[in-house]
């Protein structure tokens, strides 16, 4: 009887053990199971041998495209601390804070814009892309080029993760932190939303009333990540004034900045059917014909495409980044005007990492709107501060990263010149992929895929002359010269 009892107890314990294990795995998403448990999978990582808290490792940073380079640029140019004492200083110490750190950057351009997924009811697919981004940063695999059949395994792991994407922060930060915990790692995950809100609050006093504008992707706006974080941080940081928020979904702007032809194609001189940006007929991004003069669109050089008569067009399509900014600035101000609030607009958070590339354009349009009159009366001035503070969340992101490295004794003694840059491109070997051209999925395929169908849709490859257009490189050279120099150094090192 005793043997039978012991045997029964053993069987029960085994059942409980395997049931618990099964339940644990069922709580994981399919991509998480691939990474954590399927050692035959391309995505598998052996986390048992992952180097924990190794100060020599680089910092990982990812975005849905190249917009996150503005976050990286803000970080690598920041001088907020004394590098000897590690204390924050108003004037810094004339040495950039991360001079001895290196970064690994990933732009998931093949799957961007991330802001579109929620509107297509594909949030689970977006989260899968985000976990794949993290898998890349943590892992050692990358393809030397889009046409390479074999991948290399000499990429370094990382010691911290910066989500340089507002949409990915809104929808994926909690999932990333959960996944990091499941992997048994102790790695800090920093997102840009909290940093952006703290930056906006720093522009007002603790008792001041203020309106904050939030300009972000449709996905970030739909998540309510910024308004929720404003409410949370206002309470946490003891701000007692009335702070209200208005959001503007920047449909098409980030995509236009990254050269997505569904939203902007400078080779065109006539309207086209596959355009997806603001127009007279796009219900999600309607150009209001009754206030057309307020947008002040520039029609020269096909920057606006139209049908009908120019004085009274029957359809409009935006075809320049500057006109996208004009449209979204006025659309935000119209929301505030129609609310009839008297609380002044004092800060606008540029809640998409692509937007700070064009900080001067945003500033110019807000100034223009402040002075805009109709019938001798100012249209927007009654609820606008004369100087609107434009908040780049990257500034506070840099401070948070520095503080974390200092607290955990993770400062390296390496060189920022060793930073590396990767971008996603369609996997030409995947026969399921449907392509508009070698560097782009078709729009319907991109947003028609389903989560859980684990494939190598993309290859992560180094920045190169083949994957980064000459137009983009020229813009980076002009707008973020230090980061541009690091990119050029990396590209030249792998030729």
Write the layout of secondary structure elements.
Elements: H1 2-26, H2 30-36, E1 59-63, H3 69-77, E2 103-107, H4 123-138, E3 160-163, H5 166-182, E4 188-191, H6 192-201, E5 210-216, H7 218-223, H8 225-236, E6 243-249, H9 253-257, H10 292-295, E7 304-309, E8 312-318, H11 321-339, E9 345-351, H12 359-370, E10 373-374, E11 377-378, E12 384-391, H13 394-407, E13 420-426, E14 435-437, E15 440-441, H14 443-446, E16 458-462, H15 470-479, H16 481-493
Structure description:
There is one protein chain. This protein has 495 residues and is of the alpha/beta class. It folds into 2 domains: 30-192 and 395-493, Rossmann fold, CATH 3.40.50; 195-393, Rossmann fold. It has helices spanning 2-26, 30-36, 69-77, 123-138, 166-182, 192-201, 218-223, 225-236, 253-257, 292-295, 321-339, 359-370, 394-407, 443-446, 470-479, 481-493; strands at 59-63, 103-107, 160-163, 188-191, 210-216, 243-249, 304-309, 312-318, 345-351, 373-374, 377-378, 384-391, 420-426, 435-437, 440-441, 458-462. The chain starts with a helix and ends with a helix.
Measured between the Cα atoms of the first and last residue, the distance is 75 Å
Task: Give the helix proportion (percent range).
Answer: 25-40%
What is the approximate shape? Answer: globular
Low confidence ranges = 1-24
Would you tell me the overall average pLDDT? 92
Q: Give the number of domains.
A: 2
Order of strands, widest sheet: 4-3-1-2-13-16
Structural class: alpha/beta
CATH class value of the largest domain: Alpha Beta
What about the largest sheet?
Answer: 6 strands, mixed
The counted number of beta strands is 16
Instruction: Tell me the CATH architecture of the largest domain.
Output: 3-Layer(aba) Sandwich
- Structural Rg: 24 Å
Q: How many DSSP helices?
A: 16
Strand fraction: 15-25%
The name of the CATH topology of the largest domain is Rossmann fold
